[in-house]
Inverse folding.
């Protein structure tokens, strides 16, 4: 004779995925904000200080002929999303190492360890947008309907960041040096991306190649809300295509290496 | 549905394996510092063994039906915990297949999911949630979980401030309330004071009586005899004997006596 254990309502794997994703993102935010007195302000302080430095250097010290006016709005509209990208990518280098115990004892789809980091940094990004709004209002920058494209920018950037994370996270487990290499690459990418300047400030022959940095198209979307001439649909299309390719490569790398990752951690 | 049809359906359900392991194998590198290249990392799972690698488990096959209590026996380093991890699906086999039908409550590294900075309350919701419980389900069991762990006064204390005994107690309490049909237990019961250990044992017996399937790894002979009906004897990564637990333990003791 056997007694059947009580059946629990079956949940679809998709709803479980979202549930776990949400729990982990919420946990990350809660830990970050419950352990520091300034909490939320740290997430906006970093881009603000950076913006302050660049604003001072390029408008007060040097005669600036890059970007657009008001420069602070021009800067922040790329610097805030950059903070999301760089924060999420550097977090994913430690995704498996930091969560080793949980990964070893919990059976949840393993892409969640990467996606939840991108999500929690993404939530911080959205939460930092009032800062941009504040500077738009006090500098009186005109806002145009391209503001609605923000959602598209967030979507493409999310795809790109998850893709990069899926490549980086498993590889760092095997090649620890990669963690520092990624930091260096991110610093390089900061200057190689149109953040303190716009793509139009680059020499003519570089315009085409700049489009192959997926961040160019993404930042041009955000900026077009205040500077409509920054929007370049060719760049947007290339960056969307590149982001999807990177995501596919990421999924493939992740799938092929996860078996070894689980043994290693 | 007539009575006999119901009975047939029930039998079919009983006969279906809840855990089915077919020719499973997993290999590790012997030397962590061994040179590693990208080709290794992405190589397909069915390649030949290279020097410097060994099979922690190989050619292991067995089926577990619902309600069975399985004890895994073997000396240290013979693949017991690895087998448990394969069944928990937190490791993937390099060859063969491991199929698990139904949810699993893994009592493996039970404190792993707990976040030191968060309160006990938050941690209970987080850990239960990650193992697939809905918020409302946790709500319904919350008091039971806290009562069992006997830490009612520390609900809003950060987890890191608990004593190590309390940490294990709350962790066991959460995982053992997952209501999953399969339980995996890996020596966790070696910790905690005698009173609480006995409480954990009673909880496991309660779950077994409720028709749950148990997969138990231990060195403790009396625990194995107490809970398990069937034994798996692992030696050097191979399944040497799959028989009733008393037979398996006798064989193990006999082998061990010779050494």
């Amino acid at each position: 004779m056997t007694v059947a254990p009580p059946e629990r309502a079956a949940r679809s794997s998709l709803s479980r995925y979202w549930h776990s994703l949400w729990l982990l993102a919420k946990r990350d935010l809660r830990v970050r904000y419950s352990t520091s007195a300034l909490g939320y302000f740290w997430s906006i302080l970093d881009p603000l200080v950076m913006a302050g430095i660049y604003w001072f250097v390029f408008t007060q010290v040097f005669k600036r002929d890059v970007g657009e006016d008001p420069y602070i709005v021009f800067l922040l509209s790329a610097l805030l999303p950059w903070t999301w990208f760089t924060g999420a990518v550097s977090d994913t280098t430690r995704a498996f190492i930091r969560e080793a115990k949980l990964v070893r004892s919990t059976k949840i789809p393993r892409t969640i360890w990467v996606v939840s980091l991108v999500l929690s940094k993404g939530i911080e990004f959205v939460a930092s947008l009032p800062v941009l709004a504040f500077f738009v209002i006090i500098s009186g920058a005109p806002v145009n309907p391209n503001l609605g494209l923000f959602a598209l920018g967030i979507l493409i950037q999310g795809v790109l960041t998850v893709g990069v994370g899926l490549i980086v996270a498993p590889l760092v487990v095997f090649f620890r040096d990669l963690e520092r290499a990624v930091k260096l690459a991110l610093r390089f990418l900061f200057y190689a991306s149109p953040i303190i300047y716009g793509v139009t400030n680059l020499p003519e022959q570089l315009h085409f190649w700049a489009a192959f940095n997926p961040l160019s198209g993404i930042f041009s979307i955000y900026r077009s809300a205040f500077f409509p001439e920054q929007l370049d649909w060719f760049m947007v299309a290339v960056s969307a295509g590149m982001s999807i390719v990177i995501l596919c490569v990421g999924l493939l790398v992740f799938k092929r290496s996860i078996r070894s990752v689980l043994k290693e951690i | 549905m007539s009575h006999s049809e119901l009975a047939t359906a029930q039998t079919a359900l009983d006969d279906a394996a809840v855990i089915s392991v077919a020719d499973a194998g997993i290999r590790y590198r012997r030397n962590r510092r061994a040179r590693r290249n990208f080709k290794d990392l992405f190589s397909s799972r069915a390649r030949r063994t290279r020097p410097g690698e060994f099979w922690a488990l190989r050619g292991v096959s067995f089926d577990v039906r619902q309600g069975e209590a399985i004890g895994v026996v073997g000396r240290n380093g013979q693949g017991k915990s690895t087998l448990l991890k394969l069944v928990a699906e937190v490791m993937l086999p390099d060859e063969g297949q491991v199929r698990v039908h139904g949810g699993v409550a893994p009592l493996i590294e039970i404190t792993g999911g707990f976040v030191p900075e968060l309160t006990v309350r938050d941690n209970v919701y987080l850990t239960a949630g990650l193992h697939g419980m809905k918020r409302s389900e946790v709500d319904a069991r919350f008091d039971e979980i806290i009562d069992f762990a006997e830490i009612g006064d520390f609900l809003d204390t950060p987890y890191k401030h608990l004593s190590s005994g309390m940490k294990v107690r709350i962790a066991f309490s959460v995982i053992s309330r997952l209501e999953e049909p399969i339980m995996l237990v890996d020596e966790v019961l070696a910790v905690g004071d005698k009173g609480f250990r006995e409480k954990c044992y009673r909880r496991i017996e309660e779950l077994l009586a409720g028709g749950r399937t148990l997969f138990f790894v231990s060195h403790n002979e009396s625990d194995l005899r107490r809970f398990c009906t069937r034994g798996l004897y692992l030696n050097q990564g191979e399944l040497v004997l799959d028989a009733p637990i008393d037979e398996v333990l006798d064989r193990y003791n006999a082998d061990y006596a010779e050494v």
